[in-house]
Every structure is written in C-alpha cells, then in structure tokens.
Amino acid sequence: MMTRTPTKPTASLAVVLLAGLVSQAATATEELVVNGAEAVALARENQAALQSDMREYVRALNRDLKARLDKQFKRVEAPRLVLALNEAGGRG
Q1: Residue 53: which domain range?
Q2: Is 42 a domain residue?
Q3: Domain annotation covers residue 28
Q4: Among 31, 59, 76, 90, which one is most buried in terms of CB atoms within 10 A?
Q5: How many domains does the chain have?
Q6: Which residue would you say has higher pLDDT here, 45 or 88?
Q7: Cα 12 from Cα 7, distance rounded (Å)
Q8: In whole angstroms, what is the distance from residue 51 CA to residue 42 CA?
Q9: pLDDT digit string (tens) for 24-74?
Q10: How far apart are CA 8 and CA 45, in angstroms?
Q11: Is 18 part of a structural domain of the chain?
C-alpha cells in the first residue's frame, strides 16, 4: 500500500496551522455555573421586569393604533343616503 506525503511544505504548514486554530477555538469556551438563591431571585426579577415591559409596550402600541384609526376614520365622510320618493300619478 502506498501512502501519499505532501510534497510542498507550505501545504503541511497550512494544515497544521488550521488544526491549531480550530482546536484553540474549541477550548476557548467558558462555563459559568451559578448556584444559590440570589441567582434564582435575580433571574425571576429580570423575567418579571421583561414581562412587565412587554405588557406596557403592547398596551402603548394598542393605544397608539386605536388613536390613529380613530383619527383616520373621523376624516372619512359617512356615505349619505338619499331616498327617492316614488310619486305615482293618479289614474284617470
């Protein structure tokens, strides 16, 4: 069985450098472990604040949309109804 060896040293160097960069990126991850009641309380507080902000944003958006629609509908004139009177002439 015949094995191929790279004939160009730059190709070997490029492969080695690429493997080094990939392994460096893989080991560069950090793990953050949080234990305790303080972290749980802080997470719940942040979640409650986010939900409150979202509710207030939706309410404000709803008020703004209603105000815009009311303003636009006030400009639109209501159609006018005209009833035609049918006057029939008397016979003979």
Answers
A1: 35-75
A2: yes
A3: no
A4: 59
A5: 1
A6: 45
A7: 9
A8: 14
A9: 555 556 666 667 788 888 889 999 999 999 999 999 999 999 999 888 888
A10: 60
A11: no
